[in-house]
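Subject: Sanity check before I submit

Could someone independently write out the structure tokens for this chain? I want to compare against mine line by line before I put it in a report. The sequence has 242 residues.
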Amino acid sequence: MLTRKIKLCHINAHITCRLCEGYLIDATTVTECLHTFCRSCLVKYLEENNTCPTCRIVIHQSHPLQYIGHDRTMQDIVYKLVPGLQEAEIKKQREFYQKLGMEVPGDIKGELCNMKTHLDQRNGDAKSEDTANKEAGEEKPEEDNDYHRSDEQVSICLECNSSKLRGLKRKWIRCSAQATVLHLKKFIAKKLNLTSFNELDILCNEEILGKDHTLKFVVVTRWRFKVKDKLSLRLVLPVISS
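---
Independent answer below. Compare away.
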């Protein structure tokens, strides 16, 4: 088969953010028009605008942040195409948390371990599978087998705001900051014996949360200035117009 090499500069327009003009980091796509940007750039832009930065289509009149979603496929493509980008970004994130005196989140730790393994294999320093498994078993405690235990955790208070919903027996839960609102809706729907999680809406500060938002994103964008250190959410049944 004939192969043709393509220079990175020829596809830069497809893997860069229109707002910061850098390579996409935490790629986030507008569901209305499928244009993609860095998450931090797009969130900051949508604080004062409700249109797509590229095509100017109205995303939503009042809640545009509910109509954007993390694009893992695009981000994987960018990291594979741009040498050293992922390693540099993870290093920046680690240095940022260390500078603030905060513990590095579990997902960044996991990426650092994976990155180190790939570099060792690339340099021919990878150890035999048996040796690696033995060392991993000696160095890692058993609780590390559960990936989400090392994630940054979020404490949530769930309150029912509908007379048609029965309250939860335990309104306080603690889970990974990487969990999404959709995960939360499915969990609550099962606990309340609802036929579908679509029967439920979750609100924060009287604003309906988008299903693709992570709890970390909700805390940063809607709860960061609150005095309380635990996220408070309300459960309601959506109003269906006849």
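---
OP: Matches mine. For the report I'm noting this point. Helices lie at 12-15, 39-46, 72-81, 85-99, 106-122, 129-139, 181-191, 215-223.
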